Amino acid sequence: MTELPILACSLDGKEQRDRVADWTKVIQQATSREVQDGRITSRYPSDPHLLGELRALIAAEAECCSFMAFEVQETQDEVIVEVRVPSEMNHVLAGMFGLVTEEMPAGSS
Question: Between 48-64 and 13-27, two packed helices, what is the crossing angle to 10 degrees?
Answer without folding.
Answer: 150
